[in-house]
């Protein structure tokens, strides 16, 4: 089992007396989130699943590269907590597509704490699909793993505009990522992108958002515990169908982004 250690640092808690009231309120909300997810990650049935997932991640990472982050505390903060930070954007019972699932972030942490979500994990690399399938089986998760390139799968009738949410983390710049993800999202659904600092990418992606049929809903900034970095959750709503020409395929999403 995980060691029971709170995510909140003493420096963060005591620094509140020096900060403006509005920032203090934001910090208080984040502290509550840290405490909530710390308990889910370290305690009870969910804690056991996170521990088993961590062990499985290390096992497969020794055979091929899934992540450079392998320390227990680093993994909890930079992978598990970061994945759960976007939980509120996944409606109850939603069908979710994840592009470039790789090591299973954010999908596996989300499924551990939200068994109501129905995930389709889309990954083009066979070895990573093997890891994902074992994780799904061992942890009893509600997911289907599909080995395919997103730009090919998005053209198939069974997948195009069939999901309430499409998410991705650490896959591509936002304009390219949107072209991979948005065709999977049905009208009224959400595109959720886990990013680092996103101001520049948001400006780059304005044209892509318009062409693909989505409208920016929010770009929520948050800080990881222990000063481990700044993150942004980019959320956009699908307001009209994506034109049939997209995704363009043959690498054009990266070589000539919208």
Descriptive notes:
There is one protein chain. With 258 residues, the chain is of the alpha/beta class. It has one domain (10-255): Rossmann fold (3-Layer(aba) Sandwich). Helices cover 42% and strands 21% of the residues. It contains eleven helices and seven strands. It has helices at residues 10-14, 21-42, 44-61, 72-84, 107-113, 126-139, 150-153, 174-181, 199-204, 206-212, 252-255; strands at residues 95-99, 118-123, 143-147, 163-169, 185-195, 214-223, 230-238. The chain has a seven-stranded mixed β-sheet with strand order 3-2-1-4-5-7-6, sandwiched between helices. It is globular.
Instruction: Measure the end-to-end span.
Output: 46 Å
The name CATH uses for the topology is Rossmann fold
Q: What radius of gyration results from the CA coordinates?
A: 18 Å
CATH superfamily name? Vaccinia Virus protein VP39
CATH class: Alpha Beta
Query: With helices defined by DSSP (H or I, 4 residues minimum), what is the helix count?
Result: 11
Instruction: Specify the helix fraction band.
Output: 40-55%
Task: List the defining traits of the structure above.
258 residues; alpha/beta; disordered N terminus; rRNA processing; Ribosomal RNA small subunit methyltransferase G; methyltransferase; cytoplasm; transferase
């Amino acid at each position: 089992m995980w060691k029971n250690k709170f995510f909140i640092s003493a420096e963060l808690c005591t620094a509140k007396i020096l900060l403006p009231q509005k920032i203090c309120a934001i910090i208080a909300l984040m502290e509550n989130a840290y405490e909530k997810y710390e308990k889910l990650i370290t305690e009870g049935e969910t804690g056991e699943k996170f521990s088993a997932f961590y062990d499985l991640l290390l096992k497969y990472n020794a055979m091929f590269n899934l992540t450079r982050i392998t320390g227990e505390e680093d993994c909890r903060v930079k992978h598990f907590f970061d994945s759960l930070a976007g939980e509120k954007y996944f409606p109850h019972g939603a069908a979710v597509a994840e592009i470039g699932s790789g090591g299973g972030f954010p999908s596996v942490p989300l499924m551990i704490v939200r068994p109501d979500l129905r995930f389709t994990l889309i990954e083009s690399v066979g070895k990573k699909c093997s890891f994902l399938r074992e994780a799904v089986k061992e942890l009893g998760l509600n997911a289907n793993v599909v080995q395919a390139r997103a730009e090919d799968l998005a053209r198939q009738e069974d997948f195009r505009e069939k999901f309430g949410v499409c998410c991705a983390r650490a896959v591509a710049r936002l304009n390219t990522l949107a072209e991979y993800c948005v065709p999977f999202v049905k009208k009224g659904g959400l595109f959720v992108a886990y990013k680092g600092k996103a101001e520049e990418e948001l400006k780059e992606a304005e044209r892509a958002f318009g062409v693909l049929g989505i409208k920016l809903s929010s770009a929520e900034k948050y800080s990881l515990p222990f000063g481990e970095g700044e993150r942004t959750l980019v959320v956009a709503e699908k307001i009209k169908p994506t034109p049939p020409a997209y995704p363009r395929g043959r690498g054009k999403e990266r070589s000539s982004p919208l």
